[in-house]
Amino acid sequence: MSWIDRSLGSISVSQISPQEYEKIRERSGLLTILGVEYKADLSDINELMELGRGAFGVVRKAQFKKTKTLMAVKIIPITGNAESNKRTVMDMDVIMRSHNCPHIVRCYGCFVSDSEVRICMELMSMCLDKLLKIALRFPEAIVGKITTCVLLALNYLKETEQIMHRDVKPSNILIDNSGSIKLCDFGIAGQLIDSRRALTNTKGCVAYLAPERVGSSESEYGIRADVWSLGITLVELSTGRHPYEGCSTDFELLAKINNDPAPRLEPSELYSKNFCAFIAKCLMKRSLDRPNYDELLLLLGCSVAFLLTVITRK
């Protein structure tokens, strides 16, 4: 019995059916690079160095020998933990379906076995969390570009894949040497059950949770929870400090999110009035008072209809 069989019940909760998983597994070893499909095995991948590791696995820089293509390979062990396995399958499913969006990290393919999953992705330079430690803070113009790219990615997920991300934060936003900004890590993404709500039983990083996700036993909430997470991210990128960084425990953090006034930026020589107002709209305590993705893109001066035609071009 494979791990997919053992974890079947949990995977169906994440809206990944056994049939969808089998489609992913059937494509194991198929890499698509610059529109050309290659049949590969692990011996065709030359691992170069470790890029990072976390609770769910390790990421290594590697090269596909046949094309000399550099890539990031995310290696995730398969365990007896159904929740972890569910996250792995969700990440694979979303990233492999989102190849038409230039603001979502591209997936070349994957290798699936009963012991581990290897997801081969385009190589980015670093995440914004690490870059922020170097830059200390980002100027408003740069944060504006980041905001646009992240919103386009979130809007694509909602409109094209009926998915909300649920874990928007600087460490899940990547940048490459050309300045391209891309969203990654879809392991806890939730399937939208209508235009407003996502069905979920997994929380993202506590420090970026929206008030409606704090202390609630309900498993349904909407895309505006991601808008709050984006707002917190923008404050952090603009100031170099997380607005709740003084909290010493998760309990204190959750209490502040739930009970304190929302974080704000005040207009100054660093932050324009419009920029501060944009963040304030993202961080309205009542979810229905927050704009949706389309409204936020329009506030940024973007034509959503035009942008959607751009991001779906191959």
UniProtKB/TrEMBL annotation:
It catalyses: L-seryl-[protein] + ATP = O-phospho-L-seryl-[protein] + ADP + H(+); L-tyrosyl-[protein] + ATP = O-phospho-L-tyrosyl-[protein] + ADP + H(+); L-threonyl-[protein] + ATP = O-phospho-L-threonyl-[protein] + ADP + H(+). It is an enzyme of class 2 (transferase). Residues 45-307 form the Protein kinase domain. Keywords: ATP-binding, Kinase, Nucleotide-binding, Phosphoprotein, Serine/threonine-protein kinase, Transferase, Tyrosine-protein kinase. Gene3D superfamilies: Phosphorylase Kinase, domain 1, Transferase(Phosphotransferase) domain 1. ATP binds at residue 74. Its EC number is 2.7.12.2. InterPro entries: Dual_spec_MAPK_kinase, Kinase-like_dom_sf, Prot_kinase_dom, Protein_kinase_ATP_BS, Ser/Thr_kinase_AS. PANTHER family: DUAL SPECIFICITY MITOGEN-ACTIVATED PROTEIN KINASE KINASE HEMIPTEROUS, MITOGEN-ACTIVATED PROTEIN KINASE KINASE 5. This is mitogen-activated protein kinase kinase. The lineage of its organism: Eukaryota, Metazoa, Ecdysozoa, Nematoda, Chromadorea.
